[in-house]
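Structure first, sequence second, as always.
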């Protein structure tokens, strides 16, 4: 089957386009090892779309820019496939929109890993969040634009809010989150300890519990005192975890 698909891709001219991309960027767009009988149709559609994205001038320049800081960078199609439901030019414009906004707010391009939750064409919470940070005439570290960080900020709300469900997020919430992240960005010791923990599910549960105030806000109007108290609880919780991680994780699992 793979031999047949390979021949078709060559006959249709996609192989030549893919080889030109690989020569210029080092990225191989045609991933034959990913084909199965069940996914052949969608693999075909995604591969053609991915070729169109990779051969665009903007995306190739984007790769070059990222490699200035990360020489080994290779874009992973998995991060971009959720965007493949418009035309390739529209998708490129969407990527550029988020890159530009993120660059202004953080000094960096938008993180590839966030594209699956970016919700075209609005940009999920990220475009509005970066815009709100810029409105405050501030910049923040790129690592703070993270779903778990944003979810920590939403724990100050009395209402149930989900960063992945935009129906639960208001403009007021976005402004609160921007100020929350700006305040967090000024506490580098906490950031240095917090970022490595974001991929550990047990610990993030503990962090959510720690930052939640006893009396959450009915409306997310920014209150620096309440936020600073929450960040202090994060400090204390992380210190407790660092002193006895096994016991802390056991306590969480026993809840």
């Amino acid at each position: 089957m793979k031999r047949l698909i390979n021949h078709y891709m060559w006959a249709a001219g996609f192989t030549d386009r893919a080889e030109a991309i690989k020569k210029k960027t080092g990225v191989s767009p045609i991933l034959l090892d990913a084909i199965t009988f069940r996914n052949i149709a969608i693999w075909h559609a995604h591969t053609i779309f991915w070729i169109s994205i990779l051969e665009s001038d903007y995306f190739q320049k984007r790769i070059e820019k990222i490699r200035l800081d990360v020489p080994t960078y290779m874009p992973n199609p998995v991060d971009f496939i959720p965007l493949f439901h418009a035309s390739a030019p529209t998708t490129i414009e969407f990527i550029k929109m988020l890159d530009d906004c993120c660059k202004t707010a953080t000094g960096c391009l938008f993180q590839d890993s966030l594209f699956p939750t970016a919700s075209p064409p609005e940009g999920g919470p990220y475009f509005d969040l970066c815009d709100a940070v810029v409105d405050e005439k501030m910049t923040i570290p790129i690592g703070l634009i993270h779903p778990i960080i944003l979810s920590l900020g939403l724990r100050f709300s009395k209402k149930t809010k989900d960063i992945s469900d935009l129906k639960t997020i208001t403009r007021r919430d976005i402004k609160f989150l921007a100020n929350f992240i700006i305040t967090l960005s000024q506490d580098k010791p906490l950031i240095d300890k917090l970022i490595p923990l974001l991929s550990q599910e047990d610990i993030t549960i503990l962090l959510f519990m720690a930052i939640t105030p006893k009396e959450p806000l009915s409306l997310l109007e920014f209150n620096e005192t309440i936020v600073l108290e929450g960040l202090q609880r994060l400090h204390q919780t992380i210190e407790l975890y660092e002193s006895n991680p096994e016991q802390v994780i056991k306590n969480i699992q026993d809840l």
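Margin note: The first helix runs from residue 2 to 11.
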